[in-house]
# Entry
Amino acid sequence: MSHISPVIWQYLVKWMTNFALFPPEASRIAPQMDALLFFITLVSLIGLTIVVLLVVSFSILYSKKRHPVAVQIEGSTLLEATWTIIPLGLFLIMFVWGALIYFRVYTPPANAMNIYVVGKQWMWKAEHPGGQHEINSLHVPTGQPVQLTLISQDVFHSFSIPAFRVKREAIPGRYTTVWFEATTPGTYHLFCTQYCGTNHSQMIGDVVVMTPGDFKAWLASSTSGASLAQNGERLFASLSCAACHNTRPDARGPSLANVYGSKLPLSTGESITADDAYLREAILNPSQHITQGYAPIMPTYQGQVSEEGIIALVEYIKNLNSDYRIQQTTNTTDLLPESEGKAASAAAKTTAPGKVNP
Amino acid sequence: MSDTIVSLPDQSTARIPKVNYLSKENGLLSWLLTSDHKRIAILYLISITFFFFIGGALAGLIRLELLTPQSDLMATDTYNKVFTMHGVIMIFFFLVPSVPATLGNFLIPIMLGAKDLALPKINLLSWYLYMAGGLLALYTMMSGGVDTGWTFTTPLSTHYVNTNVLTTGLAVFVAGFSSIFTGLNFIVTIHKMRAPGMTWFRMPLFVWAHYAASILMVLGTPVLAIAIVLVALERTIGIGIFDPAKGGDPLLFQHLFWFYSHPAVYIMILPGMGVISEVISTFSRKRVFGYTAVAFSSVAIAVFGFFVWAHHMFIMGISNYAVLVFSLLTMLVAVPSAIKIFNWAFTLYKGSITFETPMLYAFGFMGLFTIGGMTGVFLGTSGTDIHLTETYFIVAHFHFVMVGGMLMAFLAGIHFWWPKITGRMYPEKISQLAAVVTFIGFNLTFFPQFILGALGMPRRYAAYPPEFQILNVFSTAGATILGVGYLLPVLYLTWSLKYGAIAGNNPWQATGLEWQIQSPPLTENFTELPIMDHEAYDYEWLENQKAKEVASVG
Amino acid sequence: MSDSPAIAHGAPADAHLEHPSYLRHHFNSVEQQADTTNFAMWLFLLTEIMFFGGLFTAYLIYRNWYYPAFVAGSHQLNVVWGTLNTVVLIGSSFTMAMGVWCAETRRRRGLVLCLTLTCILGLCFLGIKTVEYREKFEMHHVPGQHYSLQSFLDPQSNPAVFAEYHDKPLALDMARHTEIYFSLYFALTGMHALHMIIGIGILVFMIFRAQAGAYTAGHVTFVENFGYYWHFVDLVWIYLFALLYLISRHQ
# Structure
């Protein structure tokens, strides 16, 4: 944080934001980033002043009128070293400081609450785990780390909240994440900052920061009924995932209880952490992500499930913390109207061998 | 007369030399089929000026639209096409060839003591390729434009627009080969065609700067070419190489594109830095301070410049550790530029300084490039880049280095070598006025954009929140002043062709082989093969020569 | 007075000492001309390496990610044709090198013969490539709208390939990635073929000039420099052959 006296710091910030040179600081990282911005601005100003002073003073002192004969000077190794090492030193300080902030912005804490954001031409869709959906807006509470998991349905977009000083590209084909902790209630700009076609400049919205109490109330009033996990459970059932991913001893797929966040041994021998990105990839490109000990028979669901659907499935799997929960799903599966025909064929398939003997 | 170094021959008796490269042959074909590097330079000068004003008109349209927060001057689609074409034309058809293809072509053989570049026919081919690319770009504009942004980001450019991506890609591809051949010609000439006695460290720094830029042209541009080919294939037959649905990765395009496009910015600025070295030396009457440091820093920029491309991708989901590496390397590439600025400043120390127009532009360059360069450090610092990237801060940054830097250097060079190229002097007072007007207009146009970016205004927005309006209005006001500043030189330089004072061989009393021959030069540059027996920027040698001349004539 | 006395002067630049007609006027000597054009050709080949480099980078990355798809795709290529093409092209490099030697030793007829053989072998290469491309077209392995995953989902539908490799069927998601393999195949070999076509065009031009004795009177740089280009194109093919045709032939 800043080591300047808090009084001076507050005064500086107030002056800057009132003069509208900086957006308001509404997140925990914002003052940290502003401190570095101030430092670089200061160094730049000093550097510029030095250059201008040198040029102006030399131009006056050594103008032709005052100094008609030039003195030929080859150079000075000392000076070269000075103006190599000092700028390099300053730049390296900025590099280290900036890297610290960068890592901080893109390394979410463990207790971050997750919100999924899907960007598409030309709107942002935010999905809270409780099932609240927003378009071109994002409601978040103060005092709670929030992680955004971003993906695009079509082209590159970029999710930018200047007041929080965070920004992250939303890319088709993979998740990207960023986190923040809002500090000041209010409404702030949300922009798409990666050119994405005709209505790029219309892909803007509001980030609404609320006190925790207000946020709870908002959640309660905006829920559409089913949470993301519940939607995911429905999808899990209707896509017949439970046909293989169940708790039966001869199941053809690994049980997904507690799989989120665990280290999975793959059939290739390496071991990876099952995070959001892995789960998404496993659904879309399963043949490259076979858990050790299982046959490579999982079909791909590319084209059968949208990005929102995958998000719902991921949310469901994240909350699968027991075999019992899976059993509930399987039971529900059998009860769903759309799985009548599938239950019969699934029963027929379970007679075939599943697990591969290691 | 005591505060200028201009030394013109007696105007009542002076004449343009009868035999020179301009008068040697007449007729359109003698120009269109020439192999004379100087004529090719003039062909380039006319063409890039033409494209500059088209790009400038597009810029004017952008600034007009941005006067108001709503998208009310033109449809959003049109605005998107306008800023795309502005970028494509300004970068590929103005900035990249500006100094190398005009001043570089004209001067490098003369500065080295050669009669022409190593491959004159390839040089002419370069110009035809440039014109072909340029005409394709014009055709694109007239047949509906393209609206992907000059960066052709996939998948937008491959699957989500139905504008002229292919023709624009082809235009850039063809212009790219023009650039490759120019760079190839320069490298070969510098290696193989220096006059006897012209060692590497006796070459003017202008040549060193072009050597470094040529390395970048030659090694970087082919990668852009292949990136464009892949975009074209993806767009036409859907090969899937950038398409996540088929297993491709859109980030691969970003890597291939920026692998060229970052070195491209050094291709654009290095030749300008070469011009500044020459101008500052001449108007301080001093050898450039730290010649070796300046020469090596050019090459250092070229080498390091190849290893920083992913700083354009810091927020795109590349790994944090990759960001560390590229941020560090970006800091390293910033240092040689700082070295140059200080060396130029210290060239003024104990010099004998005059303030003719080229020197004014050079001073403008030093101030504006310092600002532009330092704002680059804001962006190379990974943490602050998160807030500033993809906003008007970036737009301001690259306009400061490219327009405040490169374009000022180009104008400095045009004014500096105008007497050599044409044999005529331009009118001094109005040219100084134009330089000052340009400087003022530039700052008013682009400085507010730093603030806009820090406030969060994104780039490539046709409409914006109303609180950003006042700064945008300042910016547009500045742009009108800037336009005047750029129009004036076209007018008075054209005027000078007929009515300008006769310049003589060496109106600036500069060192350098080009100032020891007639203005305009002969087609073969030299009547006899020169032998270089003195260092670059040897003003004492110049004094001796003048003393000898006076003695022998008298 | 054009040049000021300020420059020390060497030999008069335009004094017409006996110099060959092929010495261009901006060069001081035949040696300088040869050296310079030589250097220029090497530099140009360096740019060509950078040009192909982008495609090789893409190949590296995707082969790493989708190895099974690359194996399956590579098995669909006919190694016999590929080997034949490699032999043809190496042969043409040999005849080209012989041609350079003929030019240097002023053997006009030998040069014409060697250039003609090189040209014929080059055309052979392109002919074989056409056969291969047609086969790929018929098998629906050309990326784009008509790309078919049949050969990878059901390897037995392609009996000749199956008999040789006994490939297992690929999962659907991995099978989709074979399109990337073929994109790279066509981009790489297509770029290579384009360079071959340009080379053959220049060869035809050279055959006529060689017949007229242009290269056997001491001025061999054109033939030499073209030789470098031709060898480069050959070298690129050898890399392509190894990288595209020979992936995991014996599992």
